[in-house]
Amino acid sequence: MQFQFLEIxxxxxxxxxxxxxxxxxxxxxxxxxxxxxxxxxxxxxALCVGNLLAFLMINDVLRTCPHxxxxxxxFTVLWGPLLYLYTRSITHxxxxxxxxxxxxLIPFFVHLAFFTVRYHRYDAEAKRxxxxxxxxxxxxxxxxxxxxxxxxxxxxxxxxxxxxxRYRRAIKSSMSAVERFNLSWLTIVIFGFLAKTGFDVxxxxxxxxxxxxxxxxxxxxxATLIVFIQVLxxxxxxxxxxxxxxxxxxxxxDSPLTEIQKKQYLSRxxxxxxxxxxxxxxxxxxxxxxxxxxxxxxHLSQVMNEVLHQNFFDxxxxxxxxxxxxxxxxxxxxxxxxxEILLEVGFNSKSSFNSAFKRYTGxxxxxxxxxx
Length: 372
Fold this sequence. Notes:
By secondary structure, this protein is mostly helical. It has 2 domains: 2-238, Rhodopsin 7-helix transmembrane proteins (Rhopdopsin 7-helix transmembrane proteins), CATH 1.20.1070; 259-371, Arc Repressor Mutant, subunit A. 69% of the residues lie in helices and 0% in strands. It is built from 16 helices and no strands.
């Protein structure tokens, strides 16, 4: 029963992966590279699932077409590099694939060459003999290859998380509202990918260490994969275009700004903030504020960081919180709600407002109202 259920899950995952892989290539976007990388990622996944399905039906496959076996196994090595390149492509809008990125394909070609020598180069009859007598890989080789592949996936996944966390810090230097752009969905997806990798490691450990091929682990693995793909494709299609990215060089190391100029720019900025209150715009960005103040975005960011010791996100949200405190005092006891005030001062959601308010004041809006 479990065996049949696993075949059904694997078949469903294979169809899903193949469909989404083709679907992403047909979508027209401002920057098509992330979708193309994601499409290849899903295609590699589809080949791996196809490989599993072939082994689940090994008696029929051996009899009819043993060439199908092991074709998809080498593509497992591409999962980590492709996840990393996809993460780079959406956190660095100017990222382009270069010849140097071919270095990420080296483990794939090594794996493919190994199985070509051991299996792919033979005719059908020889392949049947090798498989039936367990001569494709030895136990020690199987453990080594599996450990290397899973270790590689783990390394690339951790590097992808580091890239993502760096990006989330960086956007606070350019955006006053980061909820739509912080890629929290990708964080969830990557942790889901880690969970799937954990199932893989548990399965191979049980197989190689104890000779147990756990069907429940394979079912859990395949179910996790199906959910993982649904979430990944859904949110990747909804992600808005990002027009900024991580800075590749140290901040302001070559800036010509003098201390006198910094003070002048700060005075100009404070006048704009007090007089026009641009922070009330929920979608205010660093370039937009720089245009208002007639200061270059880089110099404006430098003034905020080096003089005020705040990034753009903190600077704007500090202003918003101060304005919300003034409104909460004025409207205490009236019909005005916290929701109306948070929208009025430039926040997009109650959760982000409550979080920022407590961070900057040490109390919740409700507590502040009572004290006022």
